[in-house]
Amino acid sequence: GQSLEQPSEVTAVEGAIVQINCTYQTSGFYGLSWYQQHDGGAPTFLSYNALDGLEETGRFSSFLSRSDSYGYLLLQELQMKDSASYFCAVRPYGGATNKLIFGTGTLLAVQP
Amino acid sequence: ETGVTQSPTHLIKTRGQQVTLRCSSQSGHNTVSWYQQALGQGPQFIFQYYREEENGRGNFPPRFSGLQFPNYSSELNVNALELDDSALYLCASSQRGPNPEAFFGQGTRLTVV
User: Fold this and answer.
1) Given CB atoms, is B106 within the 8 Å cutoff of chain A?
2) pLDDT-based confidence at A46, cuts 50/70/90?
3) For the purposes of burial, counting CB atoms within 10 Å of the CB of B41, is it exposed (0-12), middle (13-18) or buried (19 or more)?
4) What are the chain A neighbours of B104 within 8 Å (beta carbons)?
5) Is the Cβ–Cβ distance between A104 and A23 less than 8 Å?
6) What's chain B's average pLDDT?
7) Alpha-carbon gap: A104 to the closest alpha carbon of chain B (Å)
């Protein structure tokens, strides 16, 4: 089977930096994505790593190490609006082309 | 906004009933996927449609079925509703290919009583 594990909750203060980890067990995948979801609304795409290494998109960066079966999302200069759930997700080889398998999710609480 | 719209936003049904959820995909996207998200969990893949045909299915029973129309909009049908079907149902549209980004609708919150 395929599984992606994340910490259930993370708390940080406004202006700080926070890292959300994702460890996975999967047979093979095209890349690792990150999605943000506010209070049960629509998940929105944040970042994607097809290859190992760091991808930077504004205040958000994402990292992937296939050899370590590990990735993370780094959020810098935290703002109150960053309080949300964050999910890592993979597109596995085989089956439906655009299928996503999501992680367990991390609830980020940003405090003033 | 993603351009993906779902209806209705909320729905309450009785166990044993049937329900149809609708999704209008983003312009230019030919692939629609449906996900079930229970409270406090990540979305679970139900199935995907490409060019009006199902081309992948998750671990869901046959009472979960769907359609995709020529304009790429889609329906999710669930028969014989069970209490455990209570969840947020998300529709995601994307363009088949290497682009990894999926665009999600706001979802339909289904409550089965």
Assistant:
1) yes
2) very high
3) middle
4) 35, 42-44
5) no
6) 93
7) 5
